[in-house]
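Sanity check

After download, print the first record. It should look like this:
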Amino acid sequence: MNISGAELGGVGAPRATPWRLAKQVTKRLLAYQPLGATEGVRRLLSETYEAGAPYCPPAEGDLLYMLVTTHRLARCLQVGFATGSTALYLLAGAVPLRGEVLSIDLPSGKFNALGLDNLERGGFASSHRLVEENSSLALPRLHASGACFDLVVVDGWKTFDHLAMEVYFLSRMLSVSGFMVFDDTKMPSVDRVVRLLVSHYGYEEIDYRAHGQPWGHGLLHILTQRTLRRPYRAFQKTASESDLPISVDWAFWDPF
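Expected structure tokens:
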């Protein structure tokens, strides 16, 4: 790869020490190359970009797209909506399968209007529904209605107690062999609830490389963020709750 000196340390840039040069070259070599299939989503989001708003990174969005298209996951549920960027990646994969996406977010969500506009511009509005309500109210009602999903994305309120509540209902609405994806898994609260998912619900983490996530992208995150925790993680459901100890032993406990 040819990298000019101007790119590495132009006028006004910090002095190009060997360490800084090596770091920048490494970042370029390991930079994620987005899928061509999701170019339309990225282009739409760039056209409506709003500074300070939360957006789904291309690598994470591509993972969601790959999960949906590879495993034909037509029924998708998302906790958290905001700019609609995550929903766009889900819909890009689900709509050709005649699928739909249901999003749940707080009614005071600052960016919900922008998200709905993005879905309208992308031509996905008819395949999406937004429930503007706290998930602590929306999920129990959805579960009671008998709703079932193939993929759920957890990206709402990030306190452990709230996440544990969401996992309780989300897992019971997720089909066996379905997938649960978490954003911000480097946060202690999310990391802890992921451990709960594995220890009490028997979920298994996916093979990221088999779903289009190159090893270099993970290495780049470790080098730049100085943490071994992934920024997002995906797990597959392996068994029905009715077959697990949590439904058989009233006092079941497995440290996590």
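If your output differs, re-run the checksum step. Summary of this record's structure: The domain at 37-248 is CATH 3.40.50.150 (Rossmann fold).
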